[in-house]
Design brief:
Blueprint: H1 2-16, H2 18-25, H3 29-55, H4 62-82, H5 86-100, H6 103-114, H7 120-128, H8 130-145
Length: 146
C-alpha cells in the first residue's frame, strides 16, 4: 500500500503543479495535457498487460518486480525535476508511466498468492487505500510547494 501511495502521490503533484511547470518551461496547454495525460497513461496502460502476464508466472519474484518498478519511476521522477524542455519532460513522464506500470499487476499477483481466499478482498481493499491516500498527499504537498 505504501508503494501505491507513492504511485498516486506522484501523479497528483504533477497535476497540481501543472501551471507553474508550464510557466517555467514555457509549455502550451496542449503540451501540459500530453504530459499529465497521454505521455503517462499510454505507456502505463500498454505495459500493464505484459507486466501482469509476467507477474503471474510462478517463478517471478513479485517483490523484486515491485522494487525495480519503484526504482525506475523514482529515477524518472527525479529526471522530471531536471527537465529543461517539453521533450525531456515528456520522455521522463513516459519513464514514470513505465515504472508505475509494474506496481499494481505485481501487487495483485503477490496478494493473490500470499493471502488466503477468505481474506483476499480485504487485502486488495487495503492495497487500494493507496489511491485516496496518495492522491490526498499529492494534492496537499503540491499545494504547499506551489
Amino acid at each position: 500500500m505504501i508503494v501505491y501511495v507513492l504511485n498516486f502521490l506522484d501523479r497528483q503533484i504533477v497535476n497540481i503543479l501543472a501551471e507553474p511547470i508550464s510557466r517555467d518551461l514555457g509549455l502550451s496547454d496542449t503540451q501540459i495535457g500530453l504530459l499529465t495525460g497521454l505521455a503517462f497513461a499510454l505507456f502505463y496502460t500498454l505495459l500493464g498487460i505484459p507486466i501482469a502476464r509476467y507477474a503471474d508466472n510462478s517463478g517471478t519474484n513479485r517483490v523484486g518486480l515491485i522494487s525495480i518498478s519503484l526504482a525506475v519511476w523514482s529515477a524518472m521522477t527525479a529526471l522530471c525535476g531536471l527537465a529543461q524542455n517539453f521533450a525531456q519532460l515528456a520522455l521522463a513522464r513516459v519513464g514514470v508511466g513505465v515504472g508505475e506500470a509494474g506496481c499494481t499487476p505485481a501487487a495483485h499477483s503477490l496478494i493473490t498468492d500470499s493471502v488466503p481466499a477468505e481474506k483476499r478482498s480485504s487485502a486488495i481493499a487495503f492495497y487500494g487505500l493507496g489511491i485516496p491516500i496518495g492522491s490526498l498527499l499529492g494534492l496537499v504537498i503540491g499545494g504547499v510547494l506551489n
